[in-house]
Design goal:
The structure is a homodimer. The first copy, chain A, is of the alpha/beta class. Chain A has nine helices and twelve strands. Helices cover 31% and strands 21% of the residues of chain A. Chain A is elongated, with a radius of gyration of 20 Å.
């Protein structure tokens, strides 16, 4: 079906999906580019496929013909896309929440604000066999297009839950999970932390780190050994170094 | 001095510094925000300070009064800045090349394209005591404002050199430095790589990795142990995990 008018109700809906509020109202989000669309198809979350008029796209082998495909005039396609020079395919996906089933390795995020950092942390969490990621209050929306792009498809591969960390941390501890904060002060060096069967790591805001109140409730706090020459590491780097060290 | 007109030759010059070509012609680049300006001052590279009219900025303790301070009308200041809502201070800095003096730990970058990745790699290189970073052909310009912002000031703290890696790698090897590529295939797991007194690590392009020709000339190639669930790690993550492992 060729869509040519910006007053088409579908176009209006897709445009609205740029706003977080509307994404959660409709339980949908958009991914862009062949790689992410394919990952979304493999995860059975694709509801609609949007293709730029006149372009050649490869949908095999995951395309099963069940989802409607809309061909859009170039200017409409570009308006809906978030990137300046978008690849010619997008997919409208359903938010499908997977529940975290094991609690052997968890990543807890406290007010991580940068989309690239959140996306990269999700990508590393998948790479290192983590069981799930918990987003505390104040994190950037995980269905933000920049976050999704940075995950490189990892968003479809790991359970993500939303909890208040103040309540979630004691709940984990009551279930035998050791919770580790990250802090530049008063922590133990990563190299001295021993492996445990159930570990959860809290990474914090880019400027302020983990909320001190939270840090006071953890089992231990970790710092990553480094020179005095710099104040801190990027949060996605710090988190990934820790996840690599305790990968499953 | 208050500058109000966009036809002021200074304003024209500062605007041009957004272009790579002009940065290298004039040997200057701009940093934005209090933190980076302070780091630049501590490194003695500040030539001019730009302040937005009507704003309060803190220059102590590094400000020595030697550099001219220009007060700019808000619209001019915003035009020169790269960020959408800039902090009210910028500095024009001199490119000062430091030479790499030791070759115990080096990071070699082959066509790293994303500004955030390059900046983050520089930040981690400083954090883990590396002696220098070599930018091969095809990397994003290190004086790009986004790169500088991602370094969080690390750009002033580590020698950066520009070389053709094809020529530089054999030169390092002839001087006893062991050179390690990174590759998803045919590499050795990071955990099995033994420390050496002189090590250089090559990280590659976001999509294509390290040039295969280069990989065939290294002493060894490394891969980072991870699940089969994902294709690769972000390059700044991979590089930082390796640098942490072999930090000095």
């Amino acid at each position: 079906m060729l869509i040519e008018s910006s007053s088409n109700p579908k176009v209006k809906k897709w445009m609205k999906l740029k706003q977080k509020k509307y994404r959660y109202q409709s339980n949908e989000f958009i991914v862009e580019g062949e790689h992410l669309v394919l990952e979304a198809m493999n995860s059975n979350v694709v509801k609609e496929i949007l293709v730029k008029e006149g372009s050649t796209v490869h949908l095999n082998p995951a395309f099963n013909g069940k989802q409607p495909v809309y061909i859009l005039k170039e200017n409409l396609f570009t308006q809906i896309a978030s990137t300046e020079t978008p690849q010619p395919i997008m997919a409208v996906c359903e938010m499908k929440s997977k529940t975290i089933e094991r609690h052997n390795r968890l990543l807890l995020l406290d007010r991580v604000q940068d989309p690239g950092n959140l996306g990269t942390l999700l990508r590393s969490a998948v790479a290192f066999g983590f069981d799930g990621v918990i987003l505390g209050d104040g994190c950037v929306d995980v269905y933000n297009e920049k976050v999704i792009r940075s995950t490189q498809g990892a968003i479809f591969k790991i359970p993500i839950e939303f909890h208040s960390l103040k309540e979630y941390v004691p709940m984990l501890q009551a279930n035998g999970v050791k919770v580790y904060g990250t802090s530049l002060e008063n922590g133990q060096p990563l190299g001295e932390i021993e492996e445990d069967s159930q570990m959860a790591f809290i990474l914090g805001n880019e400027g302020q780190g983990v909320n001190p109140e939270l840090l006071s409730t953890t089992n231990r706090n970790i710092f990553i050994e480094m020179t005095q020459n710099i104040e801190s590491l990027n949060v996605s780097i710090a988190g990934s170094i820790i996840m690599y060290r305790f990968r499953l």
